[in-house]
Specification:
Elements: E1 2-6, H1 20-34, E2 48-50, H2 52-70, E3 76-85, E4 96-103, H3 107-117, H4 119-129, H5 144-152, H6 161-176, H7 182-195, E5 203-205
Antiparallel strand pairs: 1-4, 2-5, 3-4
Length: 207
């Protein structure tokens, strides 16, 4: 089975370590402060053009590769970058990163065993994360037993990707730490991603 799924550890761009405004501001001002001799005499910040879409896709591909390399799972054969999607407004959500996940043939039995072995742990997490409350309306079941039916009692083509994405997240968290380490996992992927991205590749100077 192969599906395009969201990588749940990706923080998005707005207000994060990958923030486009910060990247542009920091790069341009560094160049003007420390490397101005390499540019035309009257250059200003307005002369720098930032290819934000190319930067976003490069971050998405690098983040995907690092996620796959650092946190492999037995159920997944490969993970390849698909696309970045952005909300029209950033009031309630951030950018999302999607990748093509290719699963092993017996992924259902492996995932089911994981859920059986960690039933109580998953029951508590799912109850906490997917229960509606003031200011938040959940569109997913908060009953772990219902997740079994949603994930396994259907054809592979019809499996609800929202539940599949979340279960992959839980499998990574359980295998590589505890639920409290979710932020550490995200930060590690971010760190490796930034190490392999040179912002200067996404700027041109029109002067």
């Amino acid at each position: 089975m192969k599906k395009s799924l969201e990588i749940m550890f990706f923080p998005g761009f707005y207000g994060t370590i990958f923030d486009l405004v910060d990247v542009e501001y920091n790069y341009v001002n560094y160049e003007l402060d420390y490397n101005k001799e390499y540019y035309p005499e009257n250059i200003t910040a307005d002369d720098f053009q930032f290819d934000a879409n190319a930067y976003k896709n490069a971050i998405g591909e690098e983040f995907t590769n690092n996620f796959a390399d650092l946190y492999p799972l037995d159920i997944i054969k490969s993970v390849k970058f698909d696309e970045i999607t952005s909300p029209r407004f950033y009031n309630f959500e951030n950018d999302r990163l999607y990748a093509f996940f290719e699963f092993v043939d017996d992924w259902k039995s492996i995932m089911r065993k994981f859920m059986d072995d960690n039933h109580d742990w998953l029951k508590n997490i799912i109850k906490e994360e997917h229960s509606s409350r003031s200011g938040y309306m959940s569109f997913m079941s908060n009953d772990v037993d219902e997740w079994y039916h949603i994930l396994f009692d259907c054809d592979e083509d019809d499996v609800d990707t929202n539940y599949l994405e979340e279960m992959i997240k839980y499998m990574v968290i359980e295998k590589y730490g505890t639920y409290d380490t979710a932020y550490r996992i995200r930060e590690e992927i971010e760190s490796y991603t930034l190490e392999n991205i040179y912002e200067g590749e996404f700027f041109t100077v029109n002067a």
